[in-house]
Amino acid sequence: MMLLRKKRTRMKTVFSATRIMGSTLALVMFTGCNPFAKSIPPAAERALQESPQLTLLSLDPNREMPGARKMEGSTVLGELQLSPESRERVVQALRTDISHYYGRSALCFLPRHAIKATTGGTTYYFLVCYECGNMKIFANDELLTQIGVSGSGKIFNEVLSAGNVPLAALEEKY
């Protein structure tokens, strides 16, 4: 009889622990718990708006070029000073991709695009990896924040291509 009570007590404990773990997992999944900020920090947002010149950079995380500049491990293939029209398209695309972020990102970071903005003596870099769903924002080479993004980078690629800037080849997925 005593053995049966101990067994029931142990079963209740296991059941309770399982229920708590399941509830915690469900809470994390359904609340979109992730390590990313939800918006661009105010100073970086001002830089996007007020910088006299925005530059769009094409990056390749898989190409090694001797002597080429690198950003977060990606080789800089080229850059383009944005016209007022292109600037509006690129910044609007970035804001849209941040607002449409659906809460899932990969752990990798293989950026193929970057935006450079300088204002008030501070240079901001917005490195975007659409493949991973991540964007890192740097101020004078110091990481400010990481933001989730969704989208494809189509607008960025169109603007870079129109300026004859080479693009990174996308790897085929199996």
List the helices and strands and how they pair.
Elements: H1 2-30, H2 42-50, E1 54-60, E2 70-71, E3 74-81, H3 84-99, E4 113-119, E5 122-129, E6 134-139, E7 142-148, H4 154-162
Antiparallel strand pairs: 1-3, 1-4, 2-3, 4-5, 5-6, 6-7
Q: Summed up, what is this model?
A:
With 174 residues, this protein is of the alpha+beta class. It has helices at residues 2-30, 42-50, 84-99, 154-162, and strands at 54-60, 70-71, 74-81, 113-119, 122-129, 134-139, 142-148.
List the secondary-structure elements in sequence, H or E: HHEEEHEEEEH
Rg calc: 22 Å
Helix content: 25-40%
Order of adjacent strands in the largest pleated sheet: 2-3-1-4-5-6-7
Shape: globular
How many beta-strand elements?
Answer: 7
**From the helix content, strand content and strand pairing, which structural class follows?**
alpha+beta
Mean pLDDT: 82
Q: Treating each run of at least 4 consecutive H or I residues as one helix, how many helices?
A: 4
Supply the CATH class of the domain at 42-162: Alpha Beta
Explain this structure.
This protein is an alpha+beta fold and 174 residues long. It has a domain at 42-162: Dna Ligase, domain 1 (2-Layer Sandwich). Helices cover 36% and strands 26% of the residues. The chain has helices at residues 2-30, 42-50, 84-99, 154-162; strands spanning 54-60, 70-71, 74-81, 113-119, 122-129, 134-139, 142-148. The longest helix has 29 residues, at 2-30. It is globular, with a radius of gyration of 22 Å. It starts with a helix and ends in a 12-residue tail after the last helix.
